[in-house]
Specification:
single chain, elongated, alpha+beta, three-stranded antiparallel beta sheet, 25% strand
């Protein structure tokens, strides 16, 4: 068992569609950069400037690899008294948000997220240091998760 595992609650990974949602904007940016560097290389007439395009492609491939690694490391677990959010491979973090400290829960989805059927669940607490977000939750599950977290938060708050 690694340092971030919790035996009481199973980890639920985010949807792999989040990879697409993050790769599309990155692909557009790097595609435009490659196109611009090719135009510059051809306009100037210096063949060595084509190395700029190769460098941009290499950086774009590295960014794509990082996106896949980040998304596959992102998960959440619903414990008895708190919600755990796990992120990161190299720089790992686990955020623990007690249900009784939650003030409200947002569900957000941009146009690309809606097209892919995913959303981001944002948890807000009184302390900004304990706010957490879970990106890439399937849209139906995001609504159910919001309702479950709100219900648990109200129940724990009533007990204070």
């Amino acid at each position: 068992m690694s340092w971030y595992e919790n035996a009481a609650a199973p980890w639920v990974p985010v949807s792999r569609r989040l990879i697409t949602a993050r790769l599309v904007p990155a692909g557009i940016v790097f595609g435009l950069l490659v196109l611009a560097s090719l135009v510059v290389a051809l306009a100037v007439g210096e063949p060595w400037l084509l190395l700029l395009s190769v460098a941009v492609l290499a950086i774009g491939a590295w960014v794509a690899w990082v996106i896949v690694r980040q998304v596959t490391a992102h998960a959440w677990a619903e414990g008895e008294d708190d919600l755990l959010v796990r992120k990161g491979r190299m720089f790992r973090s686990v955020t623990v948000v007690p249900y009784g400290r939650m003030q409200f829960v947002d569900v957000k989805a941009g146009p690309l997220d809606r097209a892919l059927g995913i959303a981001t669940v944002q948890l807000h607490t009184a302390s900004p240091g304990t706010d957490a977000s879970i990106a890439g939750v399937p849209a139906e599950e995001a609504a159910r998760l919001r309702d479950r977290l709100t219900t648990r938060g109200e129940a724990r708050l009533a007990g204070l």
